[in-house]
Amino acid sequence: MSTLLEVKDVTKTYIERNKIFKARVFHAVKTTSFSLAKGKTLAIMGSNGSGKSTLAALISGAATPTSGDIYFAGERLIPGDYQQRSKHIRMIFQDAEASLNPHLTLGKQLEEPLLFNSALNAVQRRERIIETLQQVGLLGEHMMFYPQMMSTGQKQRASIARAIILKPDVLVADEALATLDSSVRAQIINLLLDLQDKLGIAYIFISQSPEIVKHLADEVVVMHEGSIVERGTVVDVFNNPQQSYTQKLLRSELTNAPSDGNVDTAFLEKE
Amino acid sequence: MLLDIRNLTISTNTANGRVNVLDRVSLQVDEGEIHTLVGESGSGKSLIARAIMGFLSPRWEVQADRLWFQDTDLLNLTAKQRREIIGVDIAMIFQDAKSYLDPNITIGAQLSEAVLNQDLSGSFFKRKSERKAKVASLLHRVGIKDHEAMMNSYAHQLSEGAAQKIMIASAIAHRPLLLIADEPTSTMEPATRQQIYRLLAQLHARYGMSILMISQDLGAIMQQTQRLSMIYSGQIMETGGADALLESPSHPYTEALLNTSLYRHAKMPPRTRLPTLAGAEPTLQHLPIGCRLGPRCQYARPPCVKTPSLEKRQDRQVACHYPLHLDEGKK
């Protein structure tokens, strides 16, 4: 299995200058490397502030790494060269309601990536849009629709359509399922699985939910405070987590059972 | 019975005429009970909460056979009478706690507002210190130990979980009999969600406070839930004991939601396609007649164009002409 995407020693540091001579340095992502094979799914897990969303932004090109490089099929991805990157790596976002432009019809929004990144003429673009809409379970007529005319599930389908219209090889999904209702979420999970089988897209899934990771991913990377603390296949990590952080992450979420929490009950008893 | 709602109908005018957003909803909450109302977004579950609190703007018309809290009719209250109940005996917490806190004043000042003069016993001159002590004890009650630091901080400095604890603290300031929690944890990460659930469960156990919990996901409901009601598109589909309902759902909607929840499929092989409800929830402009689940229901038959009423079947109430998993009237 050949490597499709390779992340090599990437770091991201934010410098916050709130005082004149002092700067606070925040390492959002510490030296991180991993690779992704074609048609596979990698999940990135971690609690809030662990750097997983920053990592997603680095891969998709929304942020520039402080050091390190990202290679796609052996070719270095130059930060800022969106034409090169957008043909290979696309992203879907958490909030389906907010990620579409309310001023444009769906057809126009789907046409934009094609206008900027492909040499297709108007007729071919239209064909491609209709084909993509059908792939995600919408109809060609949805070209005429404005986002507010669609339900949340349809909007998330539309943002998936926008992501796959350039026929990318990697799709980065940043908590793309977190805010969906459970019946819609099940539909989108099925859609993502179908698309992967049909088009051979590799996914990078940023998620906090062990259930989703377990169901969708082949490999998992656990992040904590900017660095990878554990990695491996889903089966290995879920059945035999090595780090106590991973164990906590999986346990607190997998079962609803109360664990030792931070809510202090001593005060309750006293009163 | 603490809260008794019978045939609550809320309607509003849309471009296509008058629409019943809530269609004859009945809901009961007993003393000391945790009742969870589950429905997907847009199903009208927050409208119920707002109707109870009296928050709805005049463009929503509220009608009900009964909307009683203990022996008070919540539908016909003057503003003054309402103030004596809302915020005192009934309190509510919201989904996005941070946006409900005042960004301009400190947490301590906000919580002081929630402490009423009538709750203080000392003389006028002692009130300030007494009030501060009350606020500190409220913070302790929701599990915040360092009350000084918390009272001096502002809303933007708090994490999601801490902000929700502040909301809970101000909601329980008067020992309400009923706490309405409108998706208090849906934007939180799972570990914080468990913390808030534990806190609510402790308050419930300690003070016997009833909780009407509103949730959008069967997978994330509180473990301590005693009763469960399912709402779909403004109609109550099924009500009953939580364990019984999760064990063997009688309504096709409950079953479908359970099936789509990954929590139920721990043993399922990865990458299996999940059973789903076809289509999407109807919009207000295109509500189907009769049972609103009808067009998406795999068991639907011609009689479903007549709205089924919520009828008692064995240990639960089901609004379906063809309930599942019940011996009587098997399909």
TrEMBL record, chain A:
Entry keyword DNA repair: no
Topology of the protein relative to the lipid bilayer: Peripheral membrane protein
One GO-annotated biological process of the protein: transmembrane transport
Record bears the keyword ATP-binding: yes
Coiled-coil boundaries: none
An annotated GO cellular component: plasma membrane
Protein name per UniProt: Peptide ABC transporter ATP-binding protein
TrEMBL record, chain B:
GO biological processes: peptide transport
CDD domains with a match to the protein in the record: ABC_NikE_OppD_transporters
Primary subcellular site in the record, as a coarse category: membrane
Family, per entry: Belongs to the ABC transporter superfamily.
Entries under Pfam families matching the protein: ABC_tran (PF00005), oligo_HPY (PF08352)
Keyword Cell inner membrane recorded: yes
Protein name from the UniProt record: Peptide ABC transporter ATP-binding protein
UniProt keyword terms in alphabetical order: ATP-binding, Cell inner membrane, Cell membrane, Membrane, Nucleotide-binding, Transport
Species the sequence originates in: Aliidiomarina iranensis
Localization annotation: Cell inner membrane
NCBIfam families: oligo_HPY
InterPro entries: AAA+_ATPase (IPR003593), ABC_Ni/Peptide_Import (IPR050388), ABC_transporter-like_ATP-bd (IPR003439), Oligopep_ABC_C (IPR013563), P-loop_NTPase (IPR027417)
Bilayer topology annotation: Peripheral membrane protein
